[in-house]
Amino acid sequence: MALTVVHFLRHGEVHNPAKVLYGRLPGYRLSEDGVRMAELAAKHLAGRNVSYLVSSPLQRAQETAAPIAAEFGLDIATDDRLIEAANAFEGKRVTGSGGVLKRPTNWWLFHNPLRPSWGEPYRQVADRMFAAALAAREHADGSEAVCVSHQLPIVCLRRFVEGQRLPHDPRKRQCSLASITSLRFEGDRVVGVDYAEPAGTTSNQVHRDQPGA
Description:
The chain is of the alpha/beta class. It has a single domain (3-209), classed as Phosphoglycerate mutase-like (Rossmann fold, 3-Layer(aba) Sandwich). The protein has helices at residues 32-45, 59-72, 122-139, 151-161, 203-209, and strands at 3-10, 50-55, 77-78, 144-149, 180-186, 189-196. The chain has a 6-stranded mixed β-sheet, with helices on both faces. Helix 1 (32-45) packs parallel to helix 2. Mean pLDDT is 92; it is low at 204-212.
């Protein structure tokens, strides 16, 4: 049975001077460093047999996909299932002065962190991401696909295919900016997971400055 690889690329750093949780809000583009991160990811994938490229509809993901499209001469397809997880705190600061965690009026949203109660359920995220993975696998049958998405959806997908519990500590996520989480498929069955950080480790910065990015 032919091996197909589906790479899940997290977008690069976002221009976010207000340090809010931007979630699905429009208009959040890559920073200059984010553009360089996207280029490093494209260079990392250069020479591989990538035949299909698909992205979340959000601007930062589309911009991250652009260097890969140029590298392989591919169009960028769009799949809404790759979008960031919905979150009740979009447009707000999560930590620090004025953060939602310090306002008692927001505390009711934290009553069930296992779902989580403040956003899209983890299982729902994992199901839509796995469906997107299967669709990309079908498009790239016998070759490789790149799906550009976001931190939490990629983490949920990886935990799902590895049989881990979906609720988790965000501080321990292995999904740095412009990182690549790769699923190896034989048919519709995942037979392995690989991980690479072409732009280096950025997780600590993300949790401090760009929660839920």
